[in-house]
Design goal:
The protein has two helices and no strands. It is mainly alpha-helical. It is 23% helix and 0% strand. It has one domain (1-84). The relative contact order is 0.11.
């Protein structure tokens, strides 16, 4: 049995996917990510929607932390090989 007090031992992947629009994917993702982060889980929430509303929901849009996507791709990525 794994040690549930160790956050590294609790690594999981959760995907919220639905092809239809306006079904609450971004809202569910923001809320689940926030709750998991408050529970000491490491959380990476990725919004593949071009509207990018997850940043709004999490409070990152229009702040000093919002780079408008200019940090992607990171310098370590190779454009010639398309690998990161």
């Amino acid at each position: 049995m794994e040690n549930l007090t160790d956050p590294v031992a609790r690594d999981r992947v959760i995907a919220v996917i639905n092809g239809k629009g306006c079904v609450g994917k971004t809202t569910v993702t923001a809320n689940v990510a926030g709750l998991l982060a408050q529970s000491d889980y490491r959380v990476l929430a990725i919004d593949l929607d071009t509207q990018g509303n997850l940043g709004l929901d999490l409070g990152y849009a229009d702040t000093q932390d919002d780079d408008g996507g200019r940090a992607w791709p990171p310098p370590s990525c190779s454009a010639a090989t398309s690998s990161c």
